[in-house]
Amino acid sequence: MIKHALIFWITVSLAVLGLVTQFMLIGFRALTSLIIPLLLLGIVFYAYRSAKLGNGQGSGKSKTKVIPSQKTMAKVAGLRKTQSAAPGKRKTYPFQVIEGSKGKNDEQLPKYH
Question: Which sequence ranges are marked TM in the entry (predicted)?
Answer without folding.
Answer: 7-25, 31-48
